[in-house]
Amino acid sequence: xxxxxxxxxxxxxxxxxxLNCNGPKKETEISxxxxxxxxxxxxxxxxxxxxxxxxxxxxxxxKESALIKNQFNSITAENIMKSMHIxxxxxxxxxxxxxxxxxxxxxxxxxxLAHNLIWHSQLPSWVNNIKDSNELxxxxxxxxxxxxxxxxxxxxxxxxxxxxxxxDGTLRKSIFYNLLGEQYLVDAFxxxxxxxxxxxxxxNDYSMCVPAKRDGAIKLVKMLQExxxxxxxxxxxxxxxxxxxxxxxxxxxxxxxxxLGVKVxxxxxxxxxxxxxxxxxxxxxxxxxxxxxxxxxxxDGLPEEIQIQLAQRYKxxxxxxxxxxxxxxxxxxxxxxxxxxxxxxxxxxGRSDYTLxxxxxxxxxxxxxxxxxxxxx
Length: 377
Ligand code: XIL
What we know:
This protein has helices at 3-22, 37-40, 53-57, 62-71, 83-86, 96-107, 125-128, 133-150, 175-180, 183-195, 211-226, 247-258, 304-323, 366-373, and strands at residues 46-51, 74-77, 111-119, 157-162, 200-205, 233-236, 239-241, 263-272, 328-333. The termini are far apart. 40% of the residues lie in helices and 14% in strands. The radius of gyration is 23 Å and the shape is globular. An 8-stranded parallel barrel has the order 1-2-3-4-5-6-8-9, surrounded by 5 helices. The chain has 377 residues and is an alpha/beta fold. (3S,4R)-3-hydroxy-2-oxopiperidin-4-yl beta-D-xylopyranoside binds next to loops.
């Protein structure tokens, strides 16, 4: 290449680099921009996400990893802290993944939400097979002491008991209730407080805007309080749809839970755009239904009109959250992007759902921009 050619090539490079600096920013670059979800909502409430194993191990693209760190200031383990993963065999704890998860949160100065201590689902089979109350009580004591004790001082809050209620507000006849009675609820909170005295302790459940279940949760938390258990907050999971629950019911739950003197948080937010096989989908992970074309209407992408509806729904609920920011301490999404969302496989396996603020390529969706727009006025 002679001097003249070299000058032309350099000029083209300079021109292209200037274009890159001054040209309009593409939407894909938003995750590295200064204003992100956690910054926009800094004065209002924490913005969290649930992480799967690949995300905890760092087996993800740089873009996804940057997005997690830039957009969120709280993390929940989507699965790896559940008892079937942590104590698959009696007294044999597998803490490797949980150690990595907690380290990720500590290193990035995030509020770490530990999910969960006592839940009837995703139990190891050896616990499911217990028939004797002393043996189950032994599990309760040991599991909480070992798990909550290991991360003492590092965890922001524990989901101490998950999903102890039926949708009609009565106590679920789980293995814990059947063998230990309602005392297991009080014991779980007291044991958690003993193991990690400074962590916040929560009761967490789905369908918390259904009036009967809301009343049941209030009764449950009052019972815990009357029995001297420390309850710092109530988690409303928030596996919601485009129209249900109504804003009015969501607001009512926030107000009524808050009047118990506890923090309220949205702990597993996602909004499905897909039809439900049942009247009231809830989030019972043990239920499932058959796939079909009717049940999976958007396998190749979300039509623009539904994208707009989803964005409006997110905007409406965040507007409500902002109205009650004095009562809400955290809003956690159940996943980082649409590819990760458990709703692709529940309640029907193998569908394409579009539940979150970031799409399958980790690009912000219309819903993201609507949620951000509430803070730019
Ligand atoms: C879900 C996970 O997202 C899935 O990956 C797993 O297969 C089943 O559990 N309520 C809860 C969460 O409290 O732990 C559940 O998470 C969703 C419903």
